[in-house]
User: Fold Serine-pyruvate aminotransferase/archaeal aspartate aminotransferase from Metallosphaera yellowstonensis MK1.
Amino acid sequence: MLIGYLGVQPEDHCNRFKGRGYIIPMTRKLLMHVGPVTIDYDVLVAGLRGDVGFTSQEFIDVMSFSLKFLRKLVGADESYQPFIIPGSGTAAMEGVVSTLRRGDKVLVVSNGVFGDRWKALLNRYPVAVDVLKANPGDYVKPEEVEKAVEDEKYTMVTMTHVETSTGVREPVGEVAKRIRDKVELIVVDGVSSVGAEVVKMKDYQVDVYLTASQKALGIPPGAGLLVLSERAVSRLSDESVAGYFLNLKNWLDVMRNLEVSKGSYFATLPVHLVFMMAKAFELIEREGLENRIKRHERVAQGIRTGLESMGVDIVAKRPEAYSNTVTGVLLKKANPADVLKEVVTEGVELAPGVHPALAGKYFRIGHMGWVTPNDAIATLAVLERVLKRLGEPINLGEGVRAAQLSFS
Amino acid sequence: MLIGYLGVQPEDHCNRFKGRGYIIPMTRKLLMHVGPVTIDYDVLVAGLRGDVGFTSQEFIDVMSFSLKFLRKLVGADESYQPFIIPGSGTAAMEGVVSTLRRGDKVLVVSNGVFGDRWKALLNRYPVAVDVLKANPGDYVKPEEVEKAVEDEKYTMVTMTHVETSTGVREPVGEVAKRIRDKVELIVVDGVSSVGAEVVKMKDYQVDVYLTASQKALGIPPGAGLLVLSERAVSRLSDESVAGYFLNLKNWLDVMRNLEVSKGSYFATLPVHLVFMMAKAFELIEREGLENRIKRHERVAQGIRTGLESMGVDIVAKRPEAYSNTVTGVLLKKANPADVLKEVVTEGVELAPGVHPALAGKYFRIGHMGWVTPNDAIATLAVLERVLKRLGEPINLGEGVRAAQLSFS
Amino acid sequence: MLIGYLGVQPEDHCNRFKGRGYIIPMTRKLLMHVGPVTIDYDVLVAGLRGDVGFTSQEFIDVMSFSLKFLRKLVGADESYQPFIIPGSGTAAMEGVVSTLRRGDKVLVVSNGVFGDRWKALLNRYPVAVDVLKANPGDYVKPEEVEKAVEDEKYTMVTMTHVETSTGVREPVGEVAKRIRDKVELIVVDGVSSVGAEVVKMKDYQVDVYLTASQKALGIPPGAGLLVLSERAVSRLSDESVAGYFLNLKNWLDVMRNLEVSKGSYFATLPVHLVFMMAKAFELIEREGLENRIKRHERVAQGIRTGLESMGVDIVAKRPEAYSNTVTGVLLKKANPADVLKEVVTEGVELAPGVHPALAGKYFRIGHMGWVTPNDAIATLAVLERVLKRLGEPINLGEGVRAAQLSFS
Amino acid sequence: MLIGYLGVQPEDHCNRFKGRGYIIPMTRKLLMHVGPVTIDYDVLVAGLRGDVGFTSQEFIDVMSFSLKFLRKLVGADESYQPFIIPGSGTAAMEGVVSTLRRGDKVLVVSNGVFGDRWKALLNRYPVAVDVLKANPGDYVKPEEVEKAVEDEKYTMVTMTHVETSTGVREPVGEVAKRIRDKVELIVVDGVSSVGAEVVKMKDYQVDVYLTASQKALGIPPGAGLLVLSERAVSRLSDESVAGYFLNLKNWLDVMRNLEVSKGSYFATLPVHLVFMMAKAFELIEREGLENRIKRHERVAQGIRTGLESMGVDIVAKRPEAYSNTVTGVLLKKANPADVLKEVVTEGVELAPGVHPALAGKYFRIGHMGWVTPNDAIATLAVLERVLKRLGEPINLGEGVRAAQLSFS
Assistant:
């Protein structure tokens, strides 16, 4: 809102949106970010409840619905256990520690910043960690992972389905197939994939699929989501190296009770966020998960076609590495920070680059959640104009035209 | 929301948005209509109050603020009297009857359906009405009006600033200058202009400027707004031919009291809508009225350029007839009804044509309120694709490219 | 919201709620007013839609649902024609003029300010008007009306089901039975009754039942609602004395089209308000209309019991005049204006008295819409404390105790 | 909302509210719970933003404002470091682990379930833990704590300001004074106190004060809040035994950057919740923190007076153990589970008892956040009626009368 909070200058906000000869009204901004993303108001409005507590039957019921739906989202069946916990994607990652014991060995397959995060996280615990790393823009090949688990015995292998820092997609299904028999636990970070990429947890025989609310599910941030195989659940015990709040053992009975609509408590769940989540899940059900993935695919393709036609390069190095949700954009002359600042004045907000190897050379477009071809076209149009103004060699009008042809 | 009301099939809504291989989430639709238009959520949210009555001080205060702001919107000074009444633009038109007496003679300057509406309305009262009519797409020339008021004595001349049925703009300032000395009352229907076109009520010496909430002001429908000159106010009396509810004499003291923050009642005002109105006015103040008009002008120009480049014609026949708010689009082969039905499936809603002389040949794009260049680009992109599919000869990609160039 | 609009001092709002040693947060206020009333947030939230126009299929569908539901609310069948028009209760009253022709004669049965309003309104038209008046707090007896229509030939008799200015209920069913054969049209103003009192339009053979959105239906103000018998509909014609906007003839086809989910236009309907209305109707359906009336009855009884036990008198003079929706409270010593000002500081807002014969002697409590026994208890508690402070002889604690016993 | 999510039966909700001869509309329920509580709609609505990401300047600004305000809430000065992290109160408790090293020794002062939680939590880490326990309804005396820290060397002492399971308040200021020189770190769990009890972090020389969003601050759940002294901050290091996500060292720079309005990232913050938090903080500022505490005190006192007068006992054993936020209610005959189920049908939701020593003997009333005397009266009234119906010996009407007298 334009009206600011005490001590915050609302005029600043207004100035920030002053464009080239006109002003973009504030709530009409497109948030083409990596999460949170532009959120459908039906989702936001579902949390507008002044009277729901964690023991309210209406909360218990939507929690039950959400847990069940989460299974479907990752392609799991009744034998898998879903968890919705307070926190974020990183909290969900740390929840995985609940399945590890002192001395376990983990192989981290890393395509960027969020792959590397597994190492930093696991290093806080008494477990051993090895990392297989791809160059920026590329992904670790399935055969490399296969070789690594043949050379060495690992309890767990972690992969990042879509690496949010570069927009690169790992072929997790193929990797899983190759290593399934050689490791105890296969973990996939689906933070930028669940809801927008094909996810077949059961078919791939993955043990943990995790994600966060604010990504392709199009919900505000505040929850980490995990689904565990029976094998993974069987490892939740007092022997694990996990702490307390993010220890899934403490949440197990709570989730099981809530799923059958029985009140249960360990720590306070983000009640209002779960109402929003249930509404998002309902909208996903109505759209159809396949349709939703297809929509993301088309939008992503339109954006990439548009970017190439306007004359900029994409971080992901090969077509099979392209993701449906995030695209890194490499610049030749313009400064990414200036681009981000300038596009906001025309009603589009993009995400900064975070991969240290590409620092100062790229920015990111998130295209997930409730995103439409209309958002893609508008984003490309703003980007063309802004990049041109900032000295990047751009074929003005060609990006939007190419995207338009791709959508027709 | 996807969830329907009792007896309404929510599936219908969902189907309606099924596009070409993807589905547009429902609340991401662009409403490029002639009113209501796409509304900023900050405006809508301002009405979310469960506890305000018409005697609540907080209502009285925002009513006071809104009345004062309305004067600024039309370029009037303190000597002018603003009115905010329940109803719509047509209710505001009928409010004008409060200044007429039995036997008065009115000249209606009509450029289309809403010009003609004055005649139908005034015919319900004991006053005489003559009409000066333009061909569809054109406007009545100032010199024609001047001649008419020289040939015959009229109490009142009514004009329509922007004719919503065709998107044609009347040069009301010039007309007013030419006829000012020859008629008692000059009335301008500013329904599709106030907030988006230059309006200088005092400079033009206009006696009544009226508008509606749901047009360029970007508020939901539910209120008619009028500003009256002292001369017009002096004619509010028991001798007028007006009825009761829309008789401005009954509202005069109420408006005067509310403006000085004193509670007052004649009939119940749309309390929640006035909160939304005040928020919209506040946003307009922050944007700056001049900036807002400039924004509308740029968007309108981009849309017209895009339409011409994709290969369709515009209803308004000459550039000086173009308006900032509504553009009629003429089709050669496609059926307008099919176009309207089809664009919705891609997330854009447009308005049907209503001018009887052009029936079945055109549709309208509304571009007012909180509209941005991003909305224009997205609308043109959808339109190009849909028209192409429906057999209209279209240069695919050329419309969006031309608009893009116009915005850079 | 505490944050004010430009030019409005938010501090004022804050001060206004400063109570006796504590401050009541602003949105927790109880609006025990005569309309608008405390509104359920589910109803308000249903209007939070930034993308619906009057030709949007989703609007057309909820309008269809609302029209059908309106018939049920007044106990009419398919042969009756419902209307939802922009405006208010007074606009709905003036809509009745659409059934009158030059020279028709109307008998107004008046129990107070809103009864008298019929005369002021009808006097603007070329029809004759007689008035039968009750003393303040009383109602015109059925036999008096019967006698009047026997003595003189009237085209129309109007009654006010619950007189909002005094809270007095007219036995409209009995009156209708006595006069049915002697007049052409029986009209009931159900503004403070529909949704909270028993209304059997068909059984009573009433020709027009009208109401407003912001009363017992618990919707924001902005619409007038009417249901007409076939006989009333047959009188909608060009010969009527009605004007244009409130001329039901102009709305007839629109309502018929919208009811069968066909788009139709005469003037712009309050689109967002209709979404709220449909939600309210849905909630009424789920509660059950009979349950809803029973809830109003219990709350009203609790309030009256509480008032009497604390030691104040009620305006309505006899039990059979009591209404389910409005109670006038007579004061012995305290000034009503002071009471209204003071109760707000403790989080309850009441309505001023408006009957000229009781000026300065009473105020009103509205108890309609989504009102609960909890609201009644809280209101009585605040009232006891405030009246005591302002010098009224009050048995502190006795009012709430008596209400409590009445609810158990 | 009555309309349910897919797979959830909305009828269930409706039935749940069917009372004794009437139905309570759903969103009018009073949530007198221990958190989340009844939330002011101004707070909820502040989160209704579809376009804010964690790098959006508007988020960074409200985060800056919120961090600064958090210091004021606990009575700290600029030398203290505030943290707002995703999670809940338990997450904030585990954040305290960031200040502990292998082998540290902690004394837990426990008055109930949430005191005991410190032990369970700390047991997951390589630190030693001793517990000083009070009987249910009582608190550990300051002199007992003093003696314990004299007998044994502890790195840290933890206290629970208000024990949510029993509503008992610990005199934390006095304890802190007695032990300040004898321990390195004093930690207070202010989950049910900050915003409603006097908190003077600096005066007491406490090192960590923590709380959660959904308690007396009146915000939805989803964030843990902590303020650390310089001494506590100096212990954030790689040597701590903490994990990753809840390791405050990882959040330190993020909080420092955000406070000076510089974008910063470690894990995704609950962006929308922070907007709600900032609005709540703004409302608290306007109310005045002292006024707010006084309001809680008066409401709590009214509730206790009412409970005693109706004839039930309170869990807290002595007046100096009473808290402003939670009251445990002991039953003689009725089953607490039945009481909770039944009060909901009359529009009030209360919290179950959780102290194992009192299992089946009590329930809890939460009275915090935006709670008013009106809520207290309504709650007592419902409770009286329900307890009476369920066979508890109750003086019907005496509870509400006594509360009423206490408020006047």
Notes: Residues 1-20 of chain B have pLDDT under 50 and may be disordered.
